[in-house]
């Protein structure tokens, strides 16, 4: 396994659409309902899914797309910001360590290419596999987000993780 991150190509848009729109592909913790079929293509046409405010990169193993990571800028205060990030690995590639490796790679990428000192990631409290992946990637569990996310008709508790720049060393 040689995990790498790469920009989204136009040919990747249907793959992203599947991972965000197909309940069998999103997984139990990422299904939020159907989205417009042209939204991702329009975003790709606008900026290739990369901007100063955030982006999406493909998680690849060789030439094969296995998932994606995304991040967006969050304002901390008037003087600083941090990144909030997440990912989805395609169901046929789960359980092989791609999520852990991708989270390490995106953290390094964001710290190398911005002044941010903090990256946050959260997941539902029952998503034990993602919690393990975040911890293996070097993220620190900070606490429980009570009623932090609405999915499948109800509010769910979440778990907040973070990494700061000095955690990489």
From TrEMBL:
PROSITE patterns: GNAT (PS51186). One of its GO terms (molecular function) is acyltransferase activity, transferring groups other than amino-acyl groups. Residues 3-166 form the N-acetyltransferase domain. Keywords: Acyltransferase, Transferase. The keyword Transferase applies. It comes from the Bacteria. CDD domains: NAT_SF (cd04301). Pfam families: Acetyltransf_3. Coiled coil: none annotated. Belongs to the acetyltransferase family. RimJ subfamily. This is Protein N-acetyltransferase, RimJ/RimL family. It comes from Nonomuraea solani.
